[in-house]
Amino acid sequence: MAELAARSGLTVATIKFYLREGLLQPGRRTSVNQAVYDASHLERLRLIRALAKVAGLPLDTIREVVQVVSGQSSILDAMAVTQDALVGERGDEDSEDVEPAAAETLAHVIEARGWRYQPGSPAHSAAIRAVAELQAEDLTMLVDRLDDYARAADAVGRIDVQAVAGADSLDATIRGVVLGSILRRPLLDALVLLSQQHHANVLDQEDEHA
């Protein structure tokens, strides 16, 4: 266990806590107080660490993700549970009922992209709320370009899935989903800001030469 702690970056006490909570599978016993751990244990600890330290998820939610990964779930099912955990629980009211105009606008965009998705999922509800907020602020110039944003999101989503598809285990795949989703956001936001600077400069130069 000392070696497992050193390689995972976690303390022995933390690993023992995960064992007691059933998040980490027991090692193979070699004596009363000795057990052997392998690469699967290290992968599981890395997944738990990503869920707890990076994503900041509570223990019960981490347990839900780990249970799905430990079972006979498909990658799609495991990713769905992980996405729901990262976005958060749905509210008491369905976003489609509360924001029907935004839901309809988003539905047209999703249909145009041909996306196969989970209606009513936390991600779907979050997208409806985001469109509703744009509409409430009368940001027509952004709402009118929603399909362009969806096209850009489609490219990012494809890159994300392709990046984790070659992982050696489901634990590694889901860890990639968690870390990629959390750590990619600030990078992508910063790249968008840099792009805005570039295109604003281009527009300004065009105005000067007009």
TrEMBL record:
Cross-referenced SMART domains, in alphabetical order? HTH_MERR
Q: What is an example of a GO molecular function annotated in this UniProt entry?
A: DNA binding
Q: Which UniProt keywords apply?
A: DNA-binding
Please give the superkingdom of this protein's source: Bacteria
Among its keywords, does the record have DNA-binding? yes
Question: Which SUPFAM superfamilies does the protein's record reference?
Answer: Putative DNA-binding domain (SSF46955)
All residue ranges annotated as the HTH merR-type domain in the record: 1-68
Any idea what this protein is called?
Answer: DNA-binding transcriptional MerR regulator
User: Which species does the entry assign this protein to?
Assistant: Janibacter alkaliphilus
